[in-house]
């Protein structure tokens, strides 16, 4: 064995020291953090709750509260998605809450995402401003919204209709 210049160490001893130093700095492979696996779906029951928007005149604006509650028994481990469907006389109008809401279908549908973590007996609400066409006749117009999630074990309570009541404009305004 030949010694390396300046240190007097053999090549093999020097390589072993470099390897040991690397192991001490980086740690063994079995101790390295690994990417977290996606959480398995929870046992949750998401339910939509019907809340009617305020009365609105033709050309007016009102707001839909698409309200969802987690009946449990567990906190959600997956995102939940609320989808709002509007009648042809009504369009969704920004700004939305949450900001993950996206309109499509010529602003007659809106899809909102809420992240995982909705606890039992807690709620999530998408706020969707609605604009009524100016030429809409007074009357009742129906829309609907749904909730979907990989965690939801009961799909029987995931959809509700709501009514948008268009009224004659107030003559004093």
Q: Report the strand count.
A: 9
If helices are DSSP runs of H or I spanning 4 or more residues, what is the number of helices? 1
Alpha-beta content class: mainly beta
Strand order in the sheet with the most strands: 5-6-3-8-9
Q: What percent strand?
A: 35-45%
Q: What is the CA-CA span between the terminal residues?
A: 100 Å
Specify Rg, calculated over alpha carbons: 29 Å
Q: Summarize the helix and strand pattern as letters.
A: HEEEEEEEEE
Dominant shape: elongated
Write down the overall mean pLDDT: 85
Low-confidence segments, given as residue ranges, are: 14-36
Biggest beta-sheet profile: 5 strands, antiparallel
- Share of helical residues: under 10%
Short description:
The chain is mainly β. The protein has one helix at 11-26, and strands at 46-49, 61-70, 80-85, 90-92, 102-104, 109-114, 123-132, 139-149, 159-166. The strands form 2 sheets. It has a 5-stranded antiparallel beta sheet, with no helix packed on it. A 4-stranded antiparallel beta sheet has the order 1-2-7-4, with no helix packed on it.
Structure write-up:
With 173 residues, the chain is mainly beta. 9% of the residues lie in helices and 35% in strands. It is built from 1 helix and 9 strands; from the N terminus they run αβββββββββ. The chain has one helix at 11-26; strands at 46-49, 61-70, 80-85, 90-92, 102-104, 109-114, 123-132, 139-149, 159-166. The strands form 2 sheets. A 5-stranded antiparallel β-sheet has the order 5-6-3-8-9, with no helix packed on it. Strand 5 (102-104) and strand 6 (109-114) form a beta hairpin. It is elongated, with a radius of gyration of 29 Å. 21% of the residues are buried.
């Amino acid at each position: 064995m030949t010694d390396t210049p300046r240190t007097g160490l053999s090549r093999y001893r020097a390589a072993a020291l470099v390897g040991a130093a690397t192991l001490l700095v980086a740690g063994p492979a079995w101790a390295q953090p690994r990417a977290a696996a996606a959480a398995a779906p929870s046992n949750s029951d998401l339910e939509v709750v019907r809340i009617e928007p305020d009365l609105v005149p033709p050309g007016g604006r009102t707001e839909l509260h698409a309200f969802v509650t987690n009946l449990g028994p567990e906190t959600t481990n997956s995102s939940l998605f609320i989808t709002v469907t509007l009648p042809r006389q009504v369009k969704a109008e920004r700004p939305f809450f949450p900001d993950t809401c996206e309109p499509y279908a010529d602003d007659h549908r809106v899809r909102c995402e809420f992240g995982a973590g909705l606890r039992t007996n807690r709620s999530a609400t998408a706020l969707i401003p609605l604009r009524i066409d100016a030429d809409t006749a007074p009357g009742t117009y129906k829309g609907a919204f749904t909730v979907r999630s990989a965690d939801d074990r009961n799909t029987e309570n995931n959809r509700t209709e709501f009514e948008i009541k268009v009224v004659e404009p107030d003559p004093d305004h």
